[in-house]
Design brief:
The complex is a heterodimer of chains A (592) and B (72). Chain A is an alpha+beta fold. Helix content of chain A is 62%, strand content 9%. Chain A starts with a strand and ends in a 20-residue tail after the last helix. The interface between A and B is medium-sized, with 18 and 16 residues.
């Protein structure tokens, strides 16, 4: 990466910006100097206003159904978008009115349905000056026992009763209160007549409203089908235009000239210079700048490693002078995944899931491509274990159920190797950034500590306690002193985590065992049905197998991916990876 | 492998208590993490990192269980 400054005349500003946008190589930085910075092109305000309108319209429209071939005609885009926006807003408002009406008559219907069978008219429920009305659920027997007067009448409906009573008799109110279970308030309605009639009127009104709602939705859909395509292209065009119009904000500006600063990959600099000279007829000056600033980072990996870069960036973008651990993910992430899940069947089904991911979630397609490697590894380990969906497919010399103890130690061994590779990477990073001694103090010291522990243990148990202790002390104490010198107190506090990180790799063994057992359990559940001998039983057995193994595919993808990736993020990267670099985002590139 | 009753109970305690501890820690970290993610999607990597750290506890539980049952 080289930091450059581009100086040219204001006359050429637009051409230069257009060219830079097209070339997609310069990561423009804000000018930080004594000169004042430029102002956006005049068009920018109008363009951003139009863009806001288009985005708001897009957000309100439903997804377009089909792509219509016809191109919508319009004269002034801004005007058209404003009109469409207004129309859509009107439709939305009408829709919400209708929805409100529908919910109100739903309440009415619910209420009046309770009174079905009373044979009453709606008008009667309101009562008169001398007659009060109770609507609700009531313990009729209790009420009748308590009441001595007979100046009342009870009408029973399907779910509620109505009591008419003279309001000059005092006992009614009291007795109703004592015997009632629930009281309903009379809901107002525009309809008149008997309860049944009202209900059917409400029902037909509801149908009518639903129809209206549907027609409004239809109209919105039509607008969307017709305009969405155009809006989408215009949105990206305008977005580009705004980027260009606002670029001068980052430039230094004088009366007649401008200066742009930014980072460009060193090998692309000559081409940039040449192209800019072409559009300005030579009236441009490109100059390398000396700077202390840390350059932005662009992953430099081959095609195989590329999909794994997203997994690295998920934690942190690497710094400029730091090993990019993406290739480590390619080497060991699929290995861990395969070792844990190891089953030909799940390798294939998980590949299907990832292929679907590539197709339907294009923005994460790189991650799914990386995950396809894990499927391949799962198939390979499936062949090694001789397993397919939990069934033994052939007499494998390494059928995992016979080798749990070995897998346990293999997991530990992988842990030791993985963490030491991490330490070596760390040593390299320290060497590049702080020199050899720092690399030895901060990272190699840990390896010496490990050697002290292992050698000490071996000598202690085979030769004797005195030489053993001597080795542990002799190597261990200097190693700890070096750690203290290299990483300070923090390093000393971290010492136990060396052991805990290695033990953490036993999850490879744990998940391996769980994966084997889960598949076996699914098969065991289906076995009685499959061996029942009846067609129904066998069908049921097959259905159980399909359902269980589909579910297990997702469980295993989750377990394999999470456990596999975290062993990198937490256990391994912790020993060397700093991250915190700034990603190279060239002006004009899609995702910048 | 035949395992004595008390040993089996010991192994069960080792696994279950560490599993509960992991679950409790992950529940707390997870809910705080979701809160952070609602503010800023870019934190996913860091939240993921924090959320998986307590998992190691249950692996320790597994190791202890395997040791007391004589597996290793």
């Amino acid at each position: 990466m080289t930091k450059i400054s581009v100086t040219g005349t204001k006359k050429d500003l637009k051409n230069v910006i257009d060219k830079l946008h097209q070339l997609e190589v310069l990561d423009i930085r804000h000018y930080e100097g004594e000169l004042s910075t430029g102002s956006p092109f005049k068009s920018s305000e109008a363009v951003s206003e139009l863009l806001v309108d288009i985005r708001s319209l897009k957000s309100k429209l439903p997804e377009p159904n089909q792509k219509t071939g016809e191109k919508p005609e319009y004269q002034d885009l801004g005007d058209t978008v404003k009109k469409l926006n207004k129309r859509v807003e009107e439709l939305e408002e009408e829709k919400s009115e209708i929805k409100k009406d529908i919910s109100s008559i739903k309440d009415q219907k619910k209420f009046f349905s309770k009174l079905k069978g009373t044979g009453l008219k709606i008008e009667e429920l309101e009562g008169t000056e001398t007659l009060s009305v109770f609507i609700g659920e009531i313990d009729e027997q209790k009420f009748q026992q308590n009441t001595s007067s007979d100046a009342y009448q009870i009408c029973n409906g399907e779910k509620a009763s109505v009591i008419f009573y003279k309001n000059d008799v005092e006992e009614f109110e009291n007795n109703i209160r004592e015997a009632r279970n629930k009281e309903y308030n009379l809901i107002e309605t525009e309809f008149e007549g008997e309860v049944e009639e009202v209900i059917s009127s409400i029902e037909s009104l509801r149908k009518q409203l639903k129809q209206q709602l549907k027609s409004k939705d239809q109209q919105l859909q039509e607008i969307s089908d017709k305009w969405s395509g155009l809006l989408k292209t215009k949105e990206s065009e305008l977005d580009e235009e705004i980027q260009k119009a606002e670029a001068p904000i980052k430039f230094a500006s004088t009366e007649n000239s401008f200066i742009a600063e930014g980072w460009v990959p060193s090998e692309k600099m000559p081409k940039l210079e040449e192209e800019l000279a072409k559009v300005t007829k030579g009236k441009i000056h490109v100059q390398e700048e000396d700077t202390e600033e840390e350059p932005p980072v662009k992953h430099n990996n081959n095609k195989l490693v590329k999909p794994f870069e997203d997994f690295t960036d998920l934690i942190a973008v690497p710094r400029y002078n730091e090993i990019d651990p993406s290739f480590m993910l390619l080497l060991t992430f699929p290995l861990f995944f395969g070792l844990m899940i190891g089953d030909v069947g799940y390798g294939l089904t998980s590949a299907l899931v990832f292929l679907a991911g590539i197709k339907y979630v294009p923005e994460a397609s790189d991650m799914f491509k990386a995950l396809l490697w894990t499927s391949a590894a799962t198939v390979i380990f499936g062949l090694i274990y001789g397993e397919m969906f939990g069934f033994q497919i052939y007499e494998s010399p390494f059928y995992r159920a016979d080798y749990w103890t070995e897998i346990f130690y293999i997991a530990l061994g992988i842990g030791v190797a993985h963490i030491n590779i991490g330490l070596l990477f760390g040593a390299y990073n320290e060497y590049v950034n702080h020199g050899l001694m720092e690399a030895i103090y901060a990272k190699i010291s840990w390896i010496i500590l490990e050697i002290a522990a292992v050698a000490g243990y071996l000598i202690y148990t085979s030769i004797g306690s005195t030489p053993g202790t001597a080795v542990i002390m002799g190597l261990g104490i200097p190693a700890i002193a070096m750690i203290y010198k290299g990483e300070g107190m923090e390093g000393i506090v971290e010492i136990p985590s060396l052991l805990s990180n290695i033990i953490s790799y036993l999850r490879l063994f744990g998940v391996c065992m769980a994966a084997y057992t889960l598949a076996g359990t699914a098969n065991a559940i289906a076995a009685p049905a499959l061996t029942s001998g009846t067609i129904l039983g066998i069908t049921a057995g097959i259905l159980i197998l399909i359902g269980a193994h589909t579910m297990l595919t997702f469980i295993k993808i989750m377990e394999g991916a999470i456990q596999g990736i975290r062993l990198h993020y937490v256990e391994m990267f912790g020993w060397f990876y700093e991250g915190g670099g700034k990603k190279y985002a060239p002006f004009g590139a899609k995702n910048s | 492998m035949a395992v004595d009753g008390l040993v089996a109970i010991g192994a069960a305690i080792a696994i279950s208590v560490t599993a509960l501890a992991t679950a409790w820690a992950q529940a707390k970290i997870g809910s705080a993490g979701i809160g952070a993610l609602a503010e800023d999607d870019g934190l996913f990597g860091k939240v993921f990192l924090l959320a998986v750290i307590p998992e190691t506890m249950v692996i320790f539980g597994l190791v202890v269980a395997l040791v007391v049952t004589g597996f290793i």
